[in-house]
Write a structure and sequence with these properties.
Strand content of chain A: 25-35%
CATH class of the largest domain in chain A: Alpha Beta
Number of domains of chain A: 2
Largest sheet of chain A: 9 strands, mixed
CATH superfamily of the largest domain in chain A: Bira Bifunctional Protein, Domain 2
Number of strands of chain A: 21
CATH architecture of the largest domain in chain A: 2-Layer Sandwich
Oligomer: homodimer
Structural class of chain A: alpha+beta
Amino acid sequence: MRQSQLFTKTRREAPSDEVSKNAQLLIRAGYVHKEMAGVYSYLPLGRRVLTKIENIIRAEMDKIGGQELRMATLHPSEPWKQTGAWDGVDVLFKIQSRTEKEYALGQSEEEIVTPIAQQYAHSYKDLPIALYQIGQKYRDELRAKSGIMRGREFGMKDMYSFHTTQDDFDRYYEIVKEAYFKIYKRCNLDAKATEASGGSFSEKISYEFMVLTDAGEDDILYCDKCDYCANVEVAKNAEGDACPKCGQTKLQKAKAVEAGNVFDLGQKYPKAFGFTYKAEDGSDHYPIVGCYGMGTTRLMGTIVEVFADAKGIVWPEEVAPFRVHLIEITSDNADVHTEAAELYRELTSAGVEVLWDDRDARAGEKFADSDLIGIPLRIVVSEKTLAAGKFECVERVSGKVEHKSLSELIGRLTS
Amino acid sequence: MRQSQLFTKTRREAPSDEVSKNAQLLIRAGYVHKEMAGVYSYLPLGRRVLTKIENIIRAEMDKIGGQELRMATLHPSEPWKQTGAWDGVDVLFKIQSRTEKEYALGQSEEEIVTPIAQQYAHSYKDLPIALYQIGQKYRDELRAKSGIMRGREFGMKDMYSFHTTQDDFDRYYEIVKEAYFKIYKRCNLDAKATEASGGSFSEKISYEFMVLTDAGEDDILYCDKCDYCANVEVAKNAEGDACPKCGQTKLQKAKAVEAGNVFDLGQKYPKAFGFTYKAEDGSDHYPIVGCYGMGTTRLMGTIVEVFADAKGIVWPEEVAPFRVHLIEITSDNADVHTEAAELYRELTSAGVEVLWDDRDARAGEKFADSDLIGIPLRIVVSEKTLAAGKFECVERVSGKVEHKSLSELIGRLTS
């Protein structure tokens, strides 16, 4: 895309009421627009990042047999009343319609997905099933905070699985855990799985996926010799204790963001809806249900928090809005523009996503904007690179500079 | 995908309260699940169709310079109060939060997109811009009807364009009109553009895109010799009059579905928000705004209404959930299964989307399900086709039967 066509521009200052690093940078770079506390619109650059994150999650959920659907977000009140959540969930948005009907806005979708599964799963042969969607969620938070990381409207992948036995849920949880770790890895994030309390969702155990960052709202204890990790709230140990799992070293404490969670919901929802299946011997049983959340907008905010530096955002390659930021240094020498146009054509036809800064602006402004926007590889075309016969390539994350010919570039970017 | 893995099943009967053909068939075939009047969840097959429709629209909007974003759907009340729509739009859902704040649910997004454009467009050099999104809309309809075609929650593509002059809007409207016709054509729909009243949105003229079908809620007058078409509500002529445009024949009357619309919003919204741009001579002006809607779920319902036959749904190729329905006729001869598995592998690795009916069920049941689900090409693998050395291929739309070898099939499906 030609940057002269992009309708957003960078800004020097974020709104003064915006204290989180992720929202400040995302607003300044033109990724998001704040509508009110806890609600953001995603502008073209932000929409691109969000779509990449969603596609990573979608691919990994599909690989483990997740079937994608799109459930309603405007819910009838009846299923919420049936499970007791109409009065029990304080963040539930309720709506009174003109027709005197009451509706809820989806804050999680157990009340919708359980009757859907019930419609089709009647026998043990129909189980297990895993259903997921990627879409908007709404929560009436008393206080929205942390920029795009805790909102009143936010993007989320939510998956629900239905099993005949606890063992089968446990088996599937391990599969989902591996898929979650793959997603974090593709986002360059280092995540740890903890055990934590079930919260209001469930009496049973739940699991959280934590990413270490100072912007985190949670405190965790972890061991750097093994995979032990626990939320401080439920941990039986304290900082400095020997690791209760491997014993090799002392536990460390850190701030972390919850970037995913799993709830073992047991049979609560099937019981509320009278959802049973026939076992092989003809007897009726309630399925065991698991719920697997991952906030897409929260993941985007977490990535900004973890990788940003003093100059701006630093996107990992797989989630960046573009792979290459092509900077054309405005020049009286028409060959510079011709060369930039040619490189843009070559790269895009090789399938590389390029943001081409073809604006009539000073080099310093273009570089500062490029640092703020945070695309992984910057390629500079100028009179100097023209004379040298090679393009200047700068890695955003390291600042490392290399000089490459067109064929070397294509080779690197399409390998 | 293996059909034995698909969690939905077909049903003989639709819910008795569902009178529209589109919802009856979509529910019976397992595409959608009704949550309440006017609100449906989209199950895996339905989600696939919706994604295809969205991708067609996205491609055509991108081609005409539309920049995709995702605006909030939970809106602060302030911009709605600023334009007068808080009290003026009867279908606006309003929410009272725990924090005593009032919110609206997006039923259209002029109140959100105008301040976004205002943030970035300051000069005539920044215009025109065209911003679009694909997502959920909410309307507090007194009576939801026509299945997925008029809902309280529905999917929509909405685009908004900002121009310096009326001429520039008129120029861009013609471009969007062509893009809309391309979209309908890719969905196999024959659409006509009418002039209609502006409704509550605008005092100015609006345009509607009408698709002829008996399920339509509108009556139109059209000429089959030229492109004249008008909504009966605003037409100055009557059925049987000579065409006012070409005069060659008499006007005909028909039922039609509004499958898209355009509103020339003039300067209403920029005036409400004090959004001006600097012209070349330094003077300040309000931009002219256009709004271009196209319901994605409504388009899906329209396609069902237009093409369905007595046996079930008939999807046009570009929007079908799968390209091929591979029917394996259950047999004691293990070679039938091996051959079906091999064909599935070959087709999917050639990039063809295949739903493989590998269930242990009678042939008659499989064919009836296949007719109901409506995938364009059915390929049958049975002892008979094994003996013949060719696969039986049946076109859903025509019932035409052909016999083809693997290489002939691959050739046809990947050309």
